[in-house]
Design goal:
Layout: E1 5-10, E2 17-20, H1 23-31, E3 39-44, E4 52-53, E5 58-59, H2 63-77, E6 81-91, H3 96-107, E7 112-119, E8 137-144, E9 156-158, E10 168-170, E11 182-184, H4 185-192, H5 198-205, H6 207-220, E12 225-229, H7 238-249, E13 254-257, E14 266-269, E15 272-276, E16 281-283, E17 289-294, E18 298-299, H8 322-332, E19 338-341, H9 348-355, E20 359-364, H10 368-382, H11 390-393, E21 400-404
Parallel strand pairs: 2-20, 2-21, 3-6, 3-19, 7-18, 19-20
Antiparallel strand pairs: 1-21, 4-5, 6-8, 7-8, 9-17, 10-11, 10-12, 12-15, 13-14, 14-15, 16-17
Length: about 400
């Protein structure tokens, strides 16, 4: 098959493509030409096979028919990935097991990076009266084409409240480490607030008020707020193990192991490692400090509520928030990289890729391409879409895309 250009929006020379057609045929065509090895990221949000039929798409297949639909499409996607690329596949628990086995077969179980649990709803409304576990999650299966080449971006997210494990105050940080002394953090905050005893502070401020003061004080003095943690002995170098053994034998001494420019030094006392809260603190755009934590395999901080009209399109079922795709593309790509979505739906992946400066190809065979996706992307190009991640990305319009069949 040969693709022909039907229309262009914005910059006529833009490489971005939305393609009308059966995704299997298009994928096989792309794999046989210049698109092979092009994409840093493939995101798929295939039919979940819920047993229902919606206006936009048919979501009721026999399980074997669903498997027969997905298998050749996954096989056609693999050669399209760059050697350092990855595929992100979102699904619910209806076909989770089947999709996991298919992706293990096509991409290799050794290349499975993660299974992320996405919390998409709360136990409210009719769900609150259901008996048994309430289903509130989707799953994101992440596979690299070649695990050894995959280099995801480091992502942190804001942590609510403080980390109570950091409960010590470094009294004299400017002295040599051998002279360092520590005191309870709560005692230091109590004194800072002008109280003789913590019970007095709690009585005056309330338990929640004292906790807020602890959080503010900790963030403001993060380089002096510390904790001790047991290191993973089997996971550190021989030099580190030897120092841990010495530290256990001389528990009152502080030992310091310099680990080069790329790693922070290992500081030990009593066989435990000294950790600083400052290493977990970031600042927002306004310069305010906040406690950050690494991204985990549970994503419960991206709201699915209130997105019904995001992008100016109404999609009955399974619409994804732009913030979710923003996280996927932040994790798996950099500006200028190519992104592919063979189940384009209402166009969320393409819209997010456009706003984030990625190049993209989207494939859709249903009427949503003309009814929802193309108008949505046209608004992105015009700069008239103020929803989703527009403000976060500072998007004001520009670029373009072509429509192909």
């Amino acid at each position: 098959m040969a693709l022909r250009k039907l229309a262009a929006y914005g910059d006529d020379k833009s490489p971005n493509m939305v393609i009308r057609g059966d995704n299997l045929g298009v994928l096989e065509h792309m794999a046989s030409n210049a698109h092979a090895g092009l994409f840093r990221c493939i995101y798929i949000d295939p039919p979940f096979n819920t047993g229902r039929v919606f206006r936009e798409y048919h979501d009721a297949r026999h399980p074997e028919a669903w498997k027969a639909m997905m298998a050749p499409r996954l096989r056609a996607m693999r050669p399209l990935l760059r050697d350092d690329g990855a595929i992100f596949a979102e699904i619910d628990d209806t076909q989770l097991g089947c999709l996991l086995l298919l992706m293990d077969d096509v991409f290799g179980a050794d290349n499975r990076i993660a299974i992320v649990t996405i919390v998409r709803s709360a136990t409210t409304g009719h769900k609150a009266i259901n008996r048994g576990p309430v289903n509130v999650t989707d799953y994101l299966l992440i596979y690299a084409k070649e695990r050894k080449n995959f280099r995801p971006s480091a992502i942190v997210r804001k942590r609510a409240g403080r980390d109570p494990a950091y409960n010590l105050w470094l009294v004299n940080p400017d002295d040599p480490p051998s002279a360092w002394q520590f005191s309870p953090l709560k005692a230091e905050v109590t004194t800072h607030l002008g109280y003789a005893r913590r019970t007095e502070a709690v009585r005056a401020l309330g338990a929640d008020g004292f906790e807020r003061e602890l959080e503010r004080f900790s963030l403001a003095h993060a380089r002096r707020v510390v904790r001790f943690a047991q290191p993973r002995y089997e996971a550190v170098s021989l030099a580190a193990r030897a120092l841990i053994d010495r530290s256990r034998a001389e528990p009152e001494r502080i030992f310091w192991l310099d680990r080069g420019a790329r790693h922070k030094p290992m500081i030990l006392r009593g066989g435990n490692r000294l950790l600083f809260l400052a290493d977990k603190v970031r600042k927002n755009d306004g310069g305010e400090p906040y406690l950050a934590e690494p991204l985990t395999n549970v994503w419960n901080d991206i709201p699915f509520q209130g997105i019904a009209r995001e992008g100016g399109v109404v999609f009955t079922r399974n619409k994804k928030p732009e913030r979710l795709l923003e996280r996927v593309l932040t994790l798996g790509t950099e500006p200028g990289d190519w992104v592919l979505d063979p189940f384009l739906g209402s166009g969320t992946t393409a819209a997010v890729a456009h706003k984030m400066g990625r190049r993209y190809v989207g494939i859709e065979e249903t009427g949503t391409l003309d009814e929802l996706c193309i108008p949505r992307l046209a608004r992105v190009v015009e700069g008239s879409d103020a929803t989703g991640i527009t403000r976060a990305q500072g998007w004001r319009g520009g670029g373009g895309f072509g429509v192909y069949a």
